[in-house]
Amino acid sequence: MAKNQLLPFCEGEWRVPYWCHDLGYMRSSQVLRLIKASADIIHRAQMDGIEHVAPILLALRCSPAEARKRVGKAVWRNVHHSDLALNVARANILLRSRIKLADLVEFPKGTLREVLAKAKENSEAAVTHAGIIAKNRPEFREAVMLAQDTMRMGGDINRRWSLRRLREEHDRLAMEWAREKADPTPWAEPWSCEVDGFTFSLLNSRVAFAAEGAVQHHCVASYASDAKAGRYIIMRVEGKERATVRFGGHPARVQEVKGRYNARVSEACLRACEKVCAEHMESVPKEARHAR
Predict the structure, then answer these.
(1) Model pTM greater than 0.90?
(2) CA distance 27 to 140
(3) 59 and 81 in contact (C-beta within 8 Å)?
(4) Which residues contact 59 (CB under 8 A, 6 or more apart)?
(5) What DSSP character marks residue 160?
(6) How far apart are CA 170 and CA 190, in angstroms?
């Protein structure tokens, strides 16, 4: 069905613009009620030839003049110069989060469909920082994780930073935390092995876990207590690829393998992890697997 076609409304004679389907009005009674209540605003925008701003008017629940006054001339100019699809994506976020329109207009277009999912996994503040700092979708995904971790460690974020500057601040805080908060006392002897061009090294202290998390930008440090208790065996992977692997269960099996920023790893890396689990696990110091 073409974008400019209309769908019949459930009740009455008024007909709903097709773009309302992208706002989920058929799945959400709340959005459906809002569309009913805003029918005059939507219809007026259609009659005035500015239907492309109607989704934002719907989300803000006001007329164009009121919207311009509320968000400011610069933001409204951005909305007015954007196409219908982009404003629908923005409206969807406005309806389902507390992220402000003034921030949304700075987000790269390609990130908008991921904003709500990221906001469920992280804080809306972290997502907002990331959306303003990032220049594209891959940068946005990385910036969300960096911003969330930086805020969790008590850091402040300047939205005018580059992604590189955000990385630097994150790494500085992570290493400070590792040095100041983590216990360097090992609970098991050092251990490593080489398999298919990869080197596997046992993480055997809280400071080792903290450093791994800082370098890899993921939450492996939160598994330190479980590893010390022998519930998991976690290793640093180096060589052809950089990763972190978690073994667990009895008999042991590969439970998780993550690259930098929780990225997926190659099939070769996964196969090497499986081989370590099958062929080398019994040589791991018993202190690291005493609860197994």
Answers:
(1) no
(2) 28
(3) no
(4) 90, 91, 94, 95, 101
(5) T
(6) 28
The string of pLDDT tens digits covering residues 200-244 is 999 999 999 988 988 887 889 888 999 999 999 999 999 989 999
pLDDT for the residue 172: 84
In angstroms, what CA-CA distances link 47 with 20, 87, 257? Answer: 17, 18, 56
Domain-embedded: residue 151? no
Query: Residue 122: which of 96, 95, 149, 101 has the closest Cα?
Result: 149
Given 74, 105, 136, the domain boundary residue is 105
Say how many domains are in the chain.
2
Which of 105, 120, 146 is a domain's end point? 105
Share of the chain above pLDDT 90, in %: 66
Residue 29's identity, in one-letter code, is: S
Query: Computed from CA positions of residues 8, 9, 15, 18, in that sequence, does the dihedral angle turn out positive or negative?
Result: negative
User: What are the CA-CA distances from residue 24 to residues 18, 41, 70, 127, 138 (Å)?
Assistant: 11, 19, 25, 22, 26
Task: Decide if 147 is inside a domain.
Answer: no
Which parts of the chain register pLDDT below 70?
1-14, 290-292
In a domain, 123, yes or no: no
Which range of residues forms the domain containing residue 93? 6-105
